[in-house]
Amino acid sequence: MKKVLGALGVIQGSPEQTRIVTPYADGIKVFSAFLGSAEKKIRTMIYGATLDVFFDDLIAAKKNGLDVKVIFDHMQSTGHTEHAKIEGLIAAGWVDGTDFVIGTSPKSDQIIHIKATWLDDRWVEDGSLNYSPSAFKQVNTICIQEWPEYAVYLDGIFNQQWDWVMKNDQRYQLNECGR
């Protein structure tokens, strides 16, 4: 099975993991502590993001000199709340196309449905959780894992997606032309 999955580009591993299920654990505190542990780099690809602490922690990390970049889904970013949060990033000095992008899947303009953040090329948070207040009240999984190979894999996907968005999805950007 390893050979077959490896040939398909699937990574396998036995990382150290911490898993919680909301709302049975305080996922917001766990998630904020995870974000706050970054030392050099934060990358996020997210379907839905409206959680104050997520945006506050990202802004603080960037102000503290960390390399922070986010890819937002185009459908969710047009919603009133998420759009206002992204405008807040711009107000905090973030630059569309440099610090974040908004886009679609490279296949048929489909959504970006991944929900993952990784830190310092080592730690990965993923699961079913959108980064919204309501998601922490729902039954969702949060998995935090020390898995450098997965972080590197996600970085590769992130870079491909970023490049694709910059070449093909300019219509969704909030730069001066898109506002």
Please describe what this structure looks like.
This protein has six helices and seven strands. The protein has a single domain, classed as Endonuclease Chain A (Endonuclease, Chain A), CATH 3.30.870.10. The termini are far apart. It is an alpha/beta fold.
Give me a quick take on this structure.
36% of the residues lie in helices and 23% in strands.
CATH architecture: 2-Layer Sandwich
The major β-sheet equals: 7 strands, mixed
The assigned structural class equals: alpha/beta
Q: What's the Cα radius of gyration?
A: 16 Å
Placed side by side, the strands forming the largest sheet appear as: 1-7-6-5-2-3-4
The first-to-last residue Cα distance is: 49 Å
CATH class: Alpha Beta
Return the average pLDDT rounded to an integer: 91
| Shape field | globular
Q: What is the count of helical runs?
A: 6
Poorly predicted spans: none
Features:
179 residues, alpha/beta, Endonuclease, Chain A, 6 helices, 36% helix, globular
